Amino acid sequence: MRLKLKQLLLCGMMWMCCVPLGAQTSKEEMFSTIEKTGGVYWAYPLDFAPQTRAPKGYKPFYVSHYGRHGSRYLIGDRDYKWLVDLFEEAHREGALSDLGEDARQRLLKVWEEAEGHGGDLTPLGVRQHRGIAERMYAAFPEAFKGNPSISARSTVVLRCAMSMVAFGDRLKELNPNLRISYEASHKYMDYLNYHTDESNRFTSSTDGPWAEEYRKFEDVHTNPDRLIASLFKDKRFILKKVNPKEVMWGMYWVASDMQNAETKVSFYDLFQPQELFDLWQCINYRFYVGNANHADGKGIVVANAKSLLRNILDSADEAIQKGGIAATLRFGHDGNVIPLVALMQIENCNVAVDDPYEVYKVWSDFKVVPMAANVQIAFFRNEKGSADDILVKILHNEHEVHIPVQTDQFPFYKWSDVESYYRNLLK
Predict the structure, then answer these.
(1) What is the CA radius of gyration of the chain?
(2) Which secondary-structure segment (H or E) carries 382?
(3) Distance (Å, rounded) from C-alpha 71 to C-alpha 298?
(4) Scanning 70, 343, 360, 364, which has the fewest C-beta atoms within 10 Å of its C-beta?
(5) In whole angstroms, how far apart are CA 228 and each of 12, 101, 320?
(6) Phi and psi dihedrals of 146, rounded to 5?
(7) In sequence order, what DSSP letters do the residues of 255-315 get, joined into one string?
(8) Which tens digits make up the pLDDT trace of 67-107?
(9) Cα separation, 166 vs 277, whole angstroms
């Protein structure tokens, strides 16, 4: 009995070592790296663990990929300009505090870079995709030898197409003989960026069944009075010209996105850590409801990724049967990566809860989908084995991850088992 108990304890310890703690998020983690409160604006982290060597005799021959565009500016110029205009007006009327005047100067400096770039890929976004391409090439060199073909497809949004080109350019620099076909076309939107009418109704911020609950949650977590009082000294100007919550949110977005820009300016000193943490909780919950496996959604949002997963499986079958295909590259958005990793049941990505106060404890947007987030499936063949002796490993943001498929050689899985599991999900 004692021996059996020791064995159980040992197995439990081994299991705990294998289960990543990436889903767990605490205030302490956020406060120690305050940029994480930017959520989906978190710049792609570069803290990779060394990849596991393939079992003896197995060589990579194909990589399937889906990536979010790299770091970008705020969606529109208006997201900067209205704040610039407000602070300029307050400056003319003498309504700014000393801190407010300093913030105004910082906003003007940011505007010099951001003007005309709303929604565009930043230079950092280009570097991110070049880096991911370079590491992919280094990790799976046999797949890119010779003159194999590569299919590269992006959504019709410019930052996605620019991410695709940055990625492909780096691969071509490493092997000029690669044959890469690029397309950014509506032809591929039915799997690169697909959303059903049913899911749109659920995620609607006005009609969704979660909307009122969220409104109350956001109201509790948005407390702008201290911030506004620190920036504006004229109470009459505040009364007439300032919407405190809108200003707080506007400054939060600018502050969050500075990590993606070239201008070395920060606005985090304007906020208290708790204020940033509270605002992030609101956005984290919104992204969870809108793109992940919220319990009340009953899987309809995650199902948006079915056509993408089907394309991944079909493209892999083609690469296996035809040969000569190094990679299938796809580029889209956070709202596509999030349901994909949930549908694939990648660890920590498919959790289902419905309490907004509990979401951040089990699901964090910056861990699932930072700028340039990506999923890679690397395929390995045993040249001395049978034609269907193929292993795969799955990478999420270049980290080896678990999926609910049986294997005795993690991070490697039999492709036949993985494909069968995912095909069944699509039925």
Answers:
(1) 23
(2) strand 374-382
(3) 31
(4) 360
(5) 51, 13, 60
(6) 75, -135
(7) HHHGGGSSS----GGGS-HHHHHHHHHHHHHHHHHHHS--GGGTTTTGGGGHHHHHHHHHH
(8) 999 999 999 999 999 999 999 999 999 999 999 999 999 99
(9) 33
